[in-house]
Amino acid sequence: MEVGIDKIGFYTSNYYLDVVDLAKARNVDPNKYLIGIGQKKQAVINPTQDAVTMAANASINFLTEQDKQDIKMIIFGTETGVDNSKSAAVYLQNLLGINKSSKAFEIKQACYGATAGLQIACDYVRLHPDDKVLVVGSDIARYGIKTPGEITQGGGAVSMLVTANPEIIAINETSTFYSEDIMDFWRPIYSRNALVDGHYSNEIYLQFFQKTYHEYLQQTGKKIDDFAALLFHLPFTKMGIKGLKSILDEDSDEYKRLLEHFENARNFNANVGNLYTGSLYLSFLSLIANDHGLKTGDLIGFFSYGSGAQGEFFSGNIKNIDNDKYRLPIENMLSKRKKLSVAEYEKIYEITLPNDNSDFEFDISDDKARFVLTGRKNGHLVYEEQSDRML
Ligand code: HMG
Predict the structure, then answer these.
(1) Residue 128 bears catalytic tag
(2) CB of 170 within 8 A of CB of 319?
(3) Is the CB–ligand 1 distance for residue 30 below 6 Å?
(4) 21 phi and psi, to 5 degrees?
(5) Three-state DSSP state, 225
(6) Which of 43, 260, 293, 314 could form a disulfide with 12 if both were Cys (CB 3.0 to 4.6 A apart)?
(7) Are 337 and 17 in contact (CB under 8 A)?
(8) Catalytic residue among 106, 122, 150, 233
(9) Ligand 1 binding pocket includes 110 (Cβ within 6 Å)
(10) Residue nearest atom 19 in ligand 1 by C-alpha distance
(11) 198: CB partners within 8 A, 6+ apart
C-alpha cells in the first residue's frame, strides 16, 4: 500500500516587500539579495494573520466535508506558536470544523516540525489505511530590522492531507536523519525575533545535508541519477544551490540537470521568503506547479533541516501531474498582494498584541483572507471567518 500527500494547499498574507527596495534602504547592492541570496520578494505578514489563521487559510480550499470526518490526527508544525500551552492544532480543528474524534497537537523543532509531522502521519496511515491526517507547517520568519537576517524573512503556511493511495506523491518508508545540540539559530522565550549565527548556520545545514544524503544512498543503494529532482528546506533560495554544489561538480551533467528542476522548485520561495516549517513543502509545490518535465513515478529527494539542529533526507514518487492545478491559484494569490514601501513594512513590523492580558482589537479592513485574527478579548484570542471575503 502506498501512503503520502493526497492534497496540498498554501497561504501567505496579502503584503510583500520588494527586495530591491529593501536593498536600497539598507545601502546594499540589490544583486546581493537577488543573486547572492536568491530572493525577489518577501512576504510581510499582516498583523491580522498568525500561525493559526494562515494554516486555516492554507487548508480551507481543499478539505471536503468527507475529509473533515475522516481526519483522525491534526499535526501542527510551527515555531511561531500562539500559546505556550495550548496547541495551534486545536484552534485549527475548530476553525476548519474537523471532527472532534481526532488527536490534535503541535510539534516544534525549528523548520523541521512539518517533516516530523509528515513522517508521523505516514506511519500512522500505514497502520490505519482508512484514516487521514492533516499536517501543517505555518510560521512567520522574523529577524531584527537592519540585521543580516532581515533579507531572509517571510511567512506563510503549507497544509497537506496524508492518506493511503495518495493523489500527488507516495512517500517512501526509508529516511535518514541526524540531530545534535547546536546553537546556529534560536528564539529565546522573551523574544519575537530569532537570533542567529548566520554563516555558521549555513555550514551546519550543509554538513547535515551531506551526512543524511550520503547515508540515504548507502542504505537504499540509490544513485544521484535515480532522482528526478532534489528539494531543500529553503531559508533563502541560494541555499538549495549551495546544497547541490556540495555534492556535485558544477560542470557535471547531473548538476546541470538537477539545477534545471531546482529553478522550478525555487520559483514560489523566491517570491515569499522563508516560511520556516513550510519552506520545503512550498518548494515541493513550486516544483509540481512549474516543472513541466516531471512524470508519474519520478523519484524526488527531500532534505529537511531545522536549526538547533535536526536534518532528515527522504524521498517520494510522483503519482499524478497537473501543473496548472497548483500553479494558477498560487500565482493568483501572489499577484494580488499589495506592495509595501520599506517605511510601511517597518511600521507593520512593530504592530503586535499587547504583551499582557488586555483586550485589543485589530483593524481587519485590509485583510481579505477567509480567516483572520481580530484581536483578544477576556484573555482569549479571537479568530473570525469572513466567508464572503475570501482571497
Ligand atoms: P550576509 O553575511 O549579509 O551575506 O548574510 P554574505 O556576505 O555571506 O553574502 C551572501 C551571498 O551574497 C554570498 O554568496 C556573497 O558572495 C553574495 P555565497 O558566498 O553565500 O555564495 N553577494 C553577492 N552576489 C551578487 N552580487 C553582489 C553580492 N554581494 C554579496 N553584489 C546570511 C547572509 C544568510 C548569513 C544572513 O542573511 C542570515 O543570517 N540569514 C538567517 C540565517 C539563515 O537563513 N541560515 C540558513 C541556514 S539555517 C536554516 O536554514 C534554518 C532556518 O530556516 C531556521 C529554522 O530552522 O527554523 C534559518
Answers:
(1) no
(2) yes
(3) no
(4) -60, -40
(5) helix
(6) 43
(7) no
(8) 233
(9) yes
(10) 36
(11) 148, 149
Compute the distance from residue 323 Cα to the ligand 1 centre, in Å.
31
Q: In this structure, how many other beta carbons lie within 10 angstroms of the beta carbon of residue 388?
A: 7
Gap between the Cα atoms of 92 and 59, Å rounded: 9
- 341: helix, strand or coil: coil
Taking alpha carbons only, the member of 141, 51, 132 closest to residue 91 is 51
Largest CA distance in the chain: 62
- Nearest-Å Rg of the Cα atoms of the chain is 20
**Looking at 111, 150, 261, 312, which residue is catalytic?**
111
- 292 given a catalytic annotation: no
Query: Could you tell me if 156 and 54 are in contact, meaning their C-beta atoms sit under 8 angstroms apart?
Result: yes
Written as nine digits, the cell of 204 is 551546519
Q: Which residue has the cell 483578544?
A: 376
| Residue 285 grid coordinates | 509545490
CA 134, CA 63: separation in Å to the nearest integer?
Answer: 10
Q: Taking the CA of residue 342 as centre, how many other CA atoms within 13 Å lie in the half-sphere pointing to its CB? A: 13
Divide the 391 residues of the chain into consecutive groups of 10 and give the mean pLDDT of each group. 98 98 98 98 97 98 97 98 97 98 98 98 98 98 97 98 98 98 96 96 98 98 98 98 98 98 98 98 98 97 98 98 94 97 97 93 95 97 80 47
Q: Are 241 and 287 in contact (CB under 8 A)?
A: no
Does the active-site annotation cover 233?
A: yes
pTM: 0.98
Look at residue 387 in the predicted model and tell me its pLDDT. 75
Element (H, E) at 140: strand 132-141
Distance CA 5, CA 159 (A): 10
Return the pLDDT at 200: 98
